[in-house]
Amino acid sequence: MNDAIYDTQKKKNIQDKENLWLGEYTEIVESEFLPYVTKAKFSAVHFYHMDFERCKIIDMHLAKIAPEHKECKFLKLNADKAPFFIQKLGIKVLPTICLFKDGVLMDQVIGFQDLGNKDDFKTIDLVRRLVKSDCVTPNNKMEKGF
């Protein structure tokens, strides 16, 4: 009986670790990038610079989106502290959001070019862009774009 309880608890602990940060928008460091991105079915990683206003705008929107889309891990990584991945992923513009499926880069949202190229875009515009990339599942018709 004790073995069954132990096995059940062990499975729950493993599942809890796999679901870590789902529904949250969390900062990681370069050494955490591969473990989180490769273990998640879907992940969105915002590469940012702390002094760039447009990065702060993306931050605000992703913080709103993450709790509504728990199917995706939302992470942010300081570009200054991640030179290896900046080079490997070919990031030349900040902010850039890299969208992964099963650890494979599927798409990138580069700057604001897909968001109307203006600072005052709405959160729904970013959600629709993430839906277009199949990184998140639309919760309603509005998120689908029609």
**Class of secondary structure makeup:** alpha/beta
Strand content: 15-25%
Using the CA coordinates, give the radius of gyration.
Answer: 17 Å
Number of strands: 5
Q: Note the overall shape.
A: globular
Oligomer: single chain
Output the helix-strand order.
HEHEHEHEEHH
Helix content: 40-55%
With strands numbered from the N-terminus, the spatial order across the biggest sheet is: 1-3-2-4-5
Biggest sheet record: 5 strands, mixed
Distance between the termini: 54 Å
Number of helices: 6
Mean pLDDT metric: 90
Instruction: Point out poorly predicted stretches.
Output: 10-17
Structure description:
With 146 residues, the chain is an alpha/beta fold. The protein is globular and about 55 Å long. The model is unreliable at 10-17 (pLDDT under 50). The longest helix has 17 residues, at 2-18. Helix content is 41%, strand content 21%. It has helices spanning 2-18, 30-39, 53-65, 83-88, 123-132, 141-144; strands at 25-28, 42-48, 73-78, 96-101, 104-110. α3 links the parallel β2 (42-48) and β3.
